[in-house]
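Reopening: Alcohol dehydrogenase 2 still failing for me.
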Amino acid sequence: MLSTSSYFCPTKVILGNGCYRQIPDLLAEFSAKKVLLVVDPAVAQAGYVMEIREMLSGKGIECENFSAIEPDPGDQSVADALALSTALGAELILAIGGGSTIDVAKAVAIVSTNGGRIHDYEGIEKFSTDPLPLVAMPTTAGTGSEVSGSCVITDTARGVKMSIRHARLNPARVALLDPQALQSLPPHVACHSGLDAFVHAFESYISRNTNPFSSAVTLHAIRLISGNIRQHVANPANADAALQMLCGSALAGMAFGQTGLGNVHCMARFIGARYHISHGLSNALCLPVVARFNMISNPELYRDVAQAMGCNIEKLSLMESAEAAVTAITDLCSDLGIPNHLSEIGLKEDDIPELAKLCIGAGYNKWNPRLTSERDFVALFKAAL
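Support: Ran it again with your exact input. Result attached.
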């Protein structure tokens, strides 16, 4: 742990089957009569979304719907949603969707009160005025965006993803974790988003910037996600597994923005952009080799991970326990059908030097537990190839 660190989460979390029915009363607490509903197009016509709209109408709340949201959302989506919000005079943003949807809602909330464009706020704590209140209900157990202090928007002109971070002002005011919102998830989306949440928890737990508060929530997140993701992917309508996954994802989301992440996210960031695959899948493809690489940096933490994942380590040495964690992680990816090799998504050995150079320039050594050189990144990519 670094000499000084912090932990902060300002979001009120409501969880349980059918908790979405509390939304009208929640909006009343904010005295909101005009609401922009930012909703994932995949669920815009879902029964519970239609019920929410009817409940809001019954309470005299004017609601406009924005659903033109793409994966890895761009600045134009934010501009279009902002125009609708401004025309409405929205007093609150209600987001229902995955990480992309919630990130667009966050961006609109920020620019609505701070002015300018979302590009003006790239970086850490670049705005100081409270955004419009945001109430968020995730429809995937993955990014934890509803409680995290960051949002990611693509600058289409530069072709780069902008990270807008503020631990106090960027999380939603209220997050609703309702397993009903996950019932129609395609299994592959449940898989990739769930593994994204696992990586958030795992990399946060072993981060150089971890602290006792973040460790408490991320270790339990590892326990919840690893213990429920197989059931969740097999049947997203399994309400018990879905709720545990939502809780694990949110717990990880409360921590990783403050502890930082590591080499898995570093490598996945550039793989996803180059080969146009989902962020969760990109993470999963890199996870086993990076987990093994980082193991020697802190085997005690790996022993904790092994135990949280249900491994029997009672008679094992420290290094054997750490190895058990790596095996459990590798088995988890295998059980969920993650490809074994990066070559299966198109990566070629000739691409590796450039990818390694990008990784070393991204600066993840300030969080990753093992110091990683450009040569190390080359070796990691080759090991995953």
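The longest strand covers residues 34-39. If you still see a failure, please send the error message rather than a screenshot.
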